[in-house]
Amino acid sequence: MEIIQLHPEIGAEIRGVSMADVANDDNAYRAVRAAFEEHSVLVFRNQPVEDKIQVGFSAKFGPLETAKVASLGEGTPFSILTNVDPVTRELVPPTHKEALRAKANQLWHTDSSFRETPALASVLSARTIPGVGGETEFVSQRASWNRLSASLRAKLSNCYAWHSYAHSRGKIDPGLASQREQNALPPACWRMRWRNPVNGRDALYIASHTGGIEGMEDKEALTLIDELMAISTAPGHSYEHVWRNGDFVMWDNRATMHRGRPWPMDKVRYMIRTTIAASDADGVSEMRPPHHPRKAA
Ligand code: OGA
Ligand code: MN
Known about the structure:
The protein has 297 residues and is of the alpha+beta class. 26% of the residues lie in helices and 24% in strands. It is built from 9 helices and 15 strands. Strands 1-2-3-13-5-15-4 form a 7-stranded mixed sheet, with helices on both faces. Strands 12-6-14 form a 3-stranded antiparallel sheet. It has a 3-stranded antiparallel sheet with strand order 8-7-11. A hairpin with a 6-residue loop joins strand 1 and strand 2 (12-15). The radius of gyration is 18 Å and the shape is globular. The mean pLDDT is 97. The structure holds N-oxalylglycine (OGA) and manganese (II) ion. Manganese (II) ion is lined by residues 105, 109, 111, 258.
């Protein structure tokens, strides 16, 4: 297996081991798992793009999430991100829910921090690429953590933040998260520092979904979250993945943020994501607030 680093802070391309190898061979899995723990974003090129391979690969890392309520792929392991209407098979207009969701995906985030169980990793495959735009950009939240002052790190280590799907969707359109989605996805609260149990490295755990901090006035919390976002996503710190046919990209949701980049909406983009839920072995138990707060309605 060859590991080719993509950016000084984040990302590596894996060569010599395929997605199918990982699905079928424990030694291949262990080698790729170690690279995942180290590099946070892994790129596989020239793979056969098949659902079976994507699921087989992903399931080695842990239990798969099912796509969330009212999303394309709901109830299956496949989250579908596209600007094509699933019924009419036509490109959607800019006001369509899937077009607005694409915009929400263009906010810096980590996947599923609003869920009852956060995500360990996501695996994304490009099924139709638009030819221009539509890249996916990543930052290392370990590097972000290390850019914070020692006093801020000490403070955030014991801060717990609220993550909600309605919060990030509301930045795009106040009606984008329906009542049904809000009922199914109540806010979740997580420590703001995720410590990797394998290598002890700390990462700043925030997302577009983060809308409040326990024990802090909302105004103060939102200002702090904005400041942390600006530090995390400062120019020069990202790896931008330019998609080619046959690409799969996997990322560590504990230690990164990502965002989709815009593309011309008269071009089809169709992506399929599988998502692996985090377990206690991935450090989730340390993330839960000690007193299990519940957000007031
Ligand atoms: C995702 C995501 C960005 C993109 O699949 O979780 O945010 O570029 N994708 O499609
Ligand atoms: Mn995402």
